[in-house]
Amino acid sequence: MSVSKILSLLMVLISISLIVLSGTYNPHNYVMTFSRGEIKSVALNLRAGESESITLKGTDTFTFYIMNESKYNSIENGNFTGSLYVNTTSDESLVFTAPGSGVYYLVIANVNTPGFLQVSVDYGSHNGMYLLISGVLLFVASILVLVYDILNFKQEPVSFDTVCPNCGTKVSKSWHYCPNCRYILKGDDDEQ
Ligand SMILES: [Zn+2]
Fold first, then answer.
1. Full-model pTM
2. Per-residue model confidence as pLDDT tens digits over 38-66
3. Cα of 191 to ligand 1 centre, how many Å?
4. Which of 38, 85, 95, 145 could form a disulfide with 34 if both were Cys (CB 3.0 to 4.6 A apart)?
5. How many Å lie between the centroid of ligand 1 and the Cα of residue 91?
6. What is the C-alpha separation between 67 and 59, in angstroms, rounded?
7. What are the pLDDT digits (tens) for 68-102?
8. Could you tell me the distance, in angstroms and rounded to a whole number, from the CA of residue 28 to the centre of ligand 1?
C-alpha cells in the first residue's frame, strides 16, 4: 500500500469523524424552567465581531434580551432599557454578532406566563458548522489524493527488455533512441 493511499484513507476516516461529530456536537443545548416573573441568564464571552447563533423555543411566550455586562448589572435596579436586542416570542432564532469584546448576557424572562414555562436553549451551534465544513473539505482533499495516487499508479514502470546494440546500455524495446549514445533503436516504419 502506497503512502498516498494510507494518507487518503486516514484523511477519509478523520473527515467522516468530523462530519459525524458536527451533527451531534453542541455543548450548549439545554432546557430552562421558569416560574412566573422569573429571570435567568446565560453569559457569553465573545470577541469583537464574533457571532453566536441562538435558538430558543418556549412552551409559551417569554421575553428575550441580549445585554452587555453593564446593562446586565443594572437589571437589579429593574432597568431593562438599553438592551442590544429585545423580543417577546415563543420561538426565537437569531445570529448575534458582538459589537465589541466582552461578556454578553442572554436574558430570558417569564413575564406573563402563569405556572411553569420551559424554554429550550441552543447556542454555539456554529462550532458544529466549522466541524462540518472542515470534514467536507478534508473529504474532498482525500479524494484528490486518491485520484492522484491512481493516476500515478497507471504510469507503468519502464521495463528494460533489451540492450542498445551500439553501447550496451539497458533500453526498452519501445524506445526509438538510446538515451546514452542516441543510436536509433527502431525506425518510424517499424512501430508495433
Ligand atoms: Zn547506445
1. 0.56
2. 999 999 999 999 888 899 999 999 999 99
3. 19
4. 38
5. 83
6. 23
7. 998 998 887 777 788 999 999 999 999 999 999 99
8. 74
